[in-house]
Amino acid sequence: MSNATEAQAWLHSRKFVLWDMDGPTRQAGNGQLVVDGPLLSLFHGYAGNRRSPLRYDIGPAAGSVVYPEGLPAPEIAKHVRWSLQNGSGSRGYTWRETADPFQHLHDGTAQGPAARDMANLALTQWEMAAVPASRLGTRVAALTQRLWHLGVKQAVATNNAELVAHLALARHGLDDGRFQAVVGRDIDGDLHLKPEPHALVRACAELGIADNQRSEGAFVEDSVKNVAAGLAAGIPVLGITGGDPDKARQFLDAGAQFAVPSVAGLWIAGRFNAAAAIREQALGQQAAAHGLEPPDRATTARPLTMPTHHVPEAAQARQRSSSLALDKSPSLDPGTGM
């Protein structure tokens, strides 16, 4: 299904929502750059006629390089490859040309743990440098806050580094507790990238979602290939298409429950009570379909004063480990070799 009104009601009726984090930037008809979702655009925050925070004076982007619509994935892949080829510790490994930055992770994994960790660290450094200029999706802050207040559990499940995800959410003020879990790549260790379901399964566990409750959630994703992760985890998928009708068909053919142009289209206009009423109605319909009593409204919406975000001890340990690894890592400045 792809009706926007149905998708709105469906999302607001979910027990939990898992969000992919990083999506692309597109240029709207008025010339403005727009992020359709899922949450933000990391590398595409490098926009306009300014340099990124990193030096490109030597290396693959020498000279004045302009990316009007942000720094695209093929360029990031080129920069990561250059860093790997010129890093003192990565010589002897093969880093092929690719348009996908994550392909370097797969190539590193195929060459052993050391190469995998080098590729992972190189990409993580570029991701970290992109955080200050990242762009938040339209209506993302308002929608995720509203879902939070309605009592919907939320988590981030991304292929970006977990430390980077925490930093990017904090950059945009989304580290206030609305996301009860953030799952991404570790700095070292097995990667378990989507379309593997590992990140989604782990996010559900951290949210306290039982295996038999996964069908009551939603996974919001902008990559068609990652629909497979949601299906493998037993979580219905809502695809973000950026307004591309071909991508919408691909999402639905892959098994997504809905395909919508943007997260902004999932926002229910009006005050909080309007969204709460739609959620209550949708939950009542679900209960009736299973021969159950509709839930009490007091159990479907939380008060507007929300608890302070608690980061589980295991997540804190991962963050500390990631920070130590980054502190010891070589610089990304091409003049220093990484």
TrEMBL record:
It comes from the Bacteria. One of its GO terms (molecular function) is hydrolase activity. Residues 315-338 are annotated as: Disordered. The keyword Hydrolase applies. Gene3D superfamilies: HAD superfamily/HAD-like. Keywords: Hydrolase. The lineage of its organism: Bacteria, Bacillati, Actinomycetota, Actinomycetes, Kitasatosporales. Residues 315-326 have a biased composition (Low complexity). This is HAD family hydrolase. Pfam families: Hydrolase. It comes from Streptodolium elevatio. InterPro entries: HAD-like_hydrolase_sf, HAD-like_sf, HAD_sf.
